[in-house]
Amino acid sequence: MAKRGFGDLVKAVVDVKRHVMAIDASLHADEEALLLSQGSQQTDVWGVNLYPDLDGDDFIEFDSMINVRPSEGNMSRNIQDIHLQKEIRAVIAALIR
């Protein structure tokens, strides 16, 4: 997927409540829209980039425009809440074995 798209990364959006993920679109916003159309709630979906050639903490980058949510305390593209990052890591780990 990465080689077909951006070369070294794959965009993904994770629903931390439903434990599902949309993956491999050109924009996080498209993946977000897909999950929302399937019943996800806005507060539960977060954008990440996956780097298949990297391991450990480097595999997931918590960076996306859809993550900018001042009303939820996230003031940047990066997911600032460490607990939320752990939740996202757990969902991804369960889905990518």
In the sheet with the most strands, the strands line up as 2-1-3-4
Order of helices and strands: EEHEEH
Distance between the termini: 16 Å
Question: How many E strands?
Answer: 4
Estimate percent helicity: 10-25%
Q: State the shape.
A: globular
- Poorly predicted runs of 5 or more residues: none
Tally of individual domains: 1
Number of helices: 2
Strand content: 15-25%
User: Main sheet, how many strands, which sense, barrel?
Assistant: 4 strands, antiparallel
Mean model confidence by pLDDT: 92
Structural class: alpha+beta
If you compute it from the alpha carbons, what radius of gyration comes out, rounded to the nearest whole angstrom? 12 Å
Outline the structure in words.
The protein is an alpha+beta fold and 97 residues long. It has one domain (10-95). The protein has helices at residues 28-37, 82-95, and strands at residues 10-15, 20-23, 45-50, 60-61. It has a four-stranded antiparallel β-sheet, with helices on both faces.
